[in-house]
Amino acid sequence: MPEDGAGESEEKTLKELLLVRYGEIFLKGLNRPYFIRALVRKIRYALRNQGAQVWVHDGRIFVEGFRDLDTVIERVTRVFGVHSVCPAVEMDKGDFDALCAQAVSMMAEMKGTFKVAARRSDKRYFMDSPAINAEMGGRILAANPDLKVDVHDPEHVMNVEIRDQAYLYVRVIPAVGGMPVGTNGNATLLLSGGIDSPVAGWMVAKRGVQINAVHYHSFPYTSEQARQKVLDLAKKLSYSCCGIKVHIVPFTEIQLQIRDHCPEEYTTLIMRRFMMRIAERIARNTESGALITGESIGQVASQTMEALGTTDAVVSMPVFRPLIGFDKSEIIEIARKIDTYELSSLPYEDCCTIFTPKHPATRPKREKVEQAEAVLDVEGLIATALAGVEIVRV
Ligand code: ATP
Ligand code: MG
After folding, report:
1. Under a CB-based contact definition with an 8 Å cutoff, are residues 378 and 314 in contact?
2. What's the whole-model pTM score?
3. Closest alpha carbon to 116 in 55, 162, 165, 49
4. Does the N-terminal peptide bond of residue 220 adopt cis geometry, omega within 30 degrees of 0?
């Protein structure tokens, strides 16, 4: 009966599995099978080494045969595209008394209000949904004096789905939401070791975008620990964003050239223009359709409106800045939720923080920045940096 993967045991009448629910709104119409296939691939990836089978039946995604339910729940709830998961039991639907006995035992410890919510995709089943609700509800009520029925706003819902088999579940565990990674193309994230850029990448990936990362490293001014921190951050992101390719770009020569030949007030801006140019070249080579940064308006001198205009001027690709309207405290709240905050707070230097000018221009004129930059061999420096790129898959 499973469409792919699972082996079945004939005698077993009760089996524990996980029912995975996805956002119905995105999945209407002809794209639905495509989204479901993509989501199943991502769930399988998240559950590799767990001995679990993931299969689709009748528009529902099921996970079964796992060793440890808690681990499976933890991993599946962080896959983008999953809206909730329900630990369920699968039973032979023919024996209604057995279904009721199971429902009674699942509700045995509960107090407060409840209802039974039955759904039949098998319309030939010998009872319709209202009849199942009434009969099963009556038996639960009779067995548990601590429960009362409330059909409008119950604290607990005993869900019963009648398909090829019957599925019973009470717990609905919310998941991360979003869309399956890869269903909305690729984008390239400028990933520093800071708090903002991992959050920015996570937010875009949540919308179904596969992330590539670019990190600029200024060895020996920045340390081996700073490089490792970025790889660790990418690893954290990869739990939800699937595998991430990190491009580590040697940036020291560019920074030294800027420091030695450009007016101090423009050094940060010129450095950021190099970052954007190099990221765009890498993006084109990796079929990315956009760049992503962790910038937020007015956060620092290089993130005023004029400064952002000056950095955008050197690329033609769209630049996504999902944090543009966020306060730092709001960004930190998300960083904690996605568990990148502690790593980001480790005190290793970033290439942005070395050679920082004392008085950076906050309202730069684009022509002035272009003039200041003209003394450099821009194309030559970019070519050398690209030739030294190291790719690490996490
Ligand atoms: P973050 O913004 O990640 O907290 P930050 O605040 O130290 O780090 P900013 O100086 O605000 O970094 O830089 C703005 C953006 O530029 C970052 O969000 C990131 O997208 C990009 N960026 C900065 N430094 C680097 C780097 N070393 N490698 C790649 N991208 C970087
Ligand atoms: Mg920042």
Report:
1. no
2. 0.89
3. 162
4. yes
DSSP letter for each residue of 38-72: HHHHHHHHHTTTTT-EEEEETTEEEEES-S-HHHH
Q: Which atom of ligand 1 is nearest to the CA of 300?
A: 11
Tokens of 132: 């199942």
**Ligand 1, atom 5: closest residue by C-alpha:** 194
Complete domains list, the chain, with CATH:
6-174 (3.30.2130.30), 186-393 (3.40.50.620)
Cα(193) to ligand 1 centroid in Å equals: 7
Q: Of all protein residues, whose CA lies closest to atom 20 belonging to ligand 1?
A: 293
Model confidence over 81-137: pLDDT tens digits? 999 999 999 999 999 999 999 999 999 999 999 999 999 988 999 999 999 999 999
Q: Is the per-residue pLDDT at 179 higher than 60?
A: yes
Handedness of CA 258, 262, 265, 270 (dihedral sign): negative
Nearest CA to ligand 1 atom 8: 194
Identify any residues that bridge with 219 across adjacent strands, giving them in sequence order. Answer: none
18 CA from centroid of ligand 1 (Å): 39
